[in-house]
Each structure stands twice: as structure tokens, then as C-alpha cells.
């Protein structure tokens, strides 16, 4: 991947899910046990994605970026049965400084892992893994790369 030299600003993503508290469920018993959070899922996802962009060698900034990434979290959920399985989906829009849309699309990723039953840290780990996979697929997308290097 050619690393873009464009400065990238992340807006805090909006949480567009119906149930903003629900992040998972344990399906090991007859009656599913819910897993909820009081955290701002949109902020969690955008902050995590920004960190991953930084680690990938892209230059992120707090303000006045050459491009801005806006997002709406559509899916952020874990189903736990024998393993933890997570799905993350974010509708992203890459916008130029002038406000022109350079790229728009749905970025998604999933992950699974083993862990002790009904442990919050395992839910967060597998959701974080899914965000890593989401960013990885974005950065591998030629279309997204062109939009990043275009302005």
C-alpha cells in the first residue's frame, strides 16, 4: 500500500444502531443474556480506527485535515455461544477540505475468538479485533486508497 501523505481528520462517528446500549448476547443458556454498555459506541469506533490509521503510518490530525472521515456505526455486536463472534459495520464518508465527497461506502469486519464464558473483556477484545479487520479491509481497498491520495 502506498501510504497517503494527506492529513486525515476523524469526526466522532454517530451510533446509528437501534439499541445503543446492546453490544452482545450470550447464547449458552436457553434464555440469552444481554451484554450492554453505557459507552459512546460511535466515539469508541472512531477513536479505535484513528489509532489504527496512525499505526499504519497514516497522518491523523485533530483539526483542519486535508480529508475528513465521517462515519455511522450500523453494526457493533457479539454473539457468544461456543466462541465469541463479532460483527462491525460502519458507513463511512471521506470528505475533502472543501466538503466534496471523495469516497463513501460500507466498511465491515468480523472476528471470533475463544474466551471464558460471559466476560466483558472478551466482548471488547473481539469487537476490537473486528475493528482491526474493518480498517485492514479499508486500507487494502484500491478505491479507498485513491480517495485518500487524491485530494
Separate helix tally:
3
Order of helices and strands: EEEEHEEEEHH
Helix proportion range: 25-40%
Question: Can you summarize the main beta sheet?
Answer: 8 strands, mixed
- Spatial shape: elongated
Structural classification: alpha/beta
Distance between the termini: 17 Å
Would you identify the regions where 5 or more consecutive residues have pLDDT less than 50? none
How many strands? Answer: 8
Whole-angstrom Rg? 16 Å
**Beta strand %:** 35-45%
Average pLDDT figure: 95
Provide structural commentary.
The protein has helices at residues 41-55, 120-140, 142-149; strands at residues 7-10, 14-15, 22-26, 33-36, 59-61, 67-80, 84-96, 101-113. Helices cover 29% and strands 38% of the residues. The model has no long low-confidence stretch (mean pLDDT 95). By secondary structure, the protein is α/β, with parallel strands linked by helices. Helix 1 (41-55) crosses helix 2 (120-140). The relative contact order is 0.22. The longest helix is centred in the C-terminal third of the chain and has 21 residues, at 120-140. It contains three helices and eight strands, in the order ββββαββββαα.
Amino acid at each position: 500500500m502506498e501510504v497517503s501523505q494527506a492529513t486525515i481528520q476523524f469526526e466522532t462517528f454517530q451510533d446509528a444502531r437501534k439499541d445503543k446500549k446492546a453490544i452482545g448476547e450470550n447464547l449458552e443458556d436457553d434464555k440469552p443474556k444481554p451484554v450492554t454498555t453505557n459507552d459512546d459506541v460511535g466515539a469508541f469506533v472512531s477513536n479505535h480506527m484513528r489509532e489504527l490509521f496512525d499505526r499504519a503510518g497514516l497522518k491523523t490530525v485533530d483539526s483542519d485535515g486535508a480529508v475528513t472521515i465521517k462515519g455511522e456505526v450500523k453494526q457493533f455486536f457479539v454473539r457468544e455461544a461456543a466462541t465469541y463472534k463479532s460483527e462491525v459495520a460502519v458507513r463511512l464518508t471521506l470528505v475533502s477540505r472543501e466538503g466534496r465527497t471523495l469516497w463513501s461506502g460500507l466498511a465491515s469486519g468480523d472476528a471470533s475468538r475463544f474466551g471464558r464464558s460471559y466476560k466483558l473483556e472478551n466482548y471488547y477484545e473481539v469487537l476490537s479485533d473486528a475493528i482491526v479487520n474493518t480498517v485492514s479491509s479499508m486500507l487494502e481497498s484500491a478505491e479507498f486508497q485513491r480517495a485518500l491520495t487524491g485530494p
